[in-house]
Design goal:
This protein is mainly beta and about 130 residues long. The protein has 2 helices and 10 strands. Strand 2 and strand 3 form a beta hairpin. The chain starts with a helix and ends with a strand.
């Protein structure tokens, strides 16, 4: 593991202490229109405690040591409405190409003040702040 990732160990220790690490259980799809860039503003951690997403008007900072992303860069992100074909919104984070051709993708089944979830990917992110 790189030294930079080791420096983040205290952050992940705090995150694990503050989140419930129960296995994600599917939730009913939410109101797709509620999934917006503005609704994502804040700090989110997945239930496994391995990924942190920090959304602001500057972009999305990703702390995901497995991809060697340590939150140093704010990447462009967008929410794509796919409701016209009956699909949930797609959250794209453009961390590679700067043209959204190979983004980090989350299919967001719903969002509220405390969490957003992806039934397709069996994931849930909890809001820390």
């Amino acid at each position: 593991m790189k030294w930079e990732a080791w420096k983040l160990l205290p952050l992940f220790t705090q995150i694990l202490d503050r989140t419930e690490r129960t296995e994600y259980r599917y939730e009913a799809p939410g109101d797709y229109s509620a999934v917006t860039e503005e609704a994502l503003a804040g700090i989110w951690v997945d239930d496994a405690g391995t990924t942190v997403l920090l959304f602001s008007e500057d972009g999305c900072r990703i702390v995901y040591p497995e991809l060697e992303l340590l939150g140093e860069t704010a990447y462009p992100f967008r929410v794509r409405d796919r409701s016209s074909v009956g699909y949930c919104p797609e959250l794209d984070i453009d961390y590679l190409q700067n043209d959204f051709s190979a983004p980090l993708v989350y299919y967001v089944s719903g969002i509220d003040d405390t969490h957003f979830w992806s039934n397709t990917q069996n994931e849930c992110f909890r809001r820390l702040a």
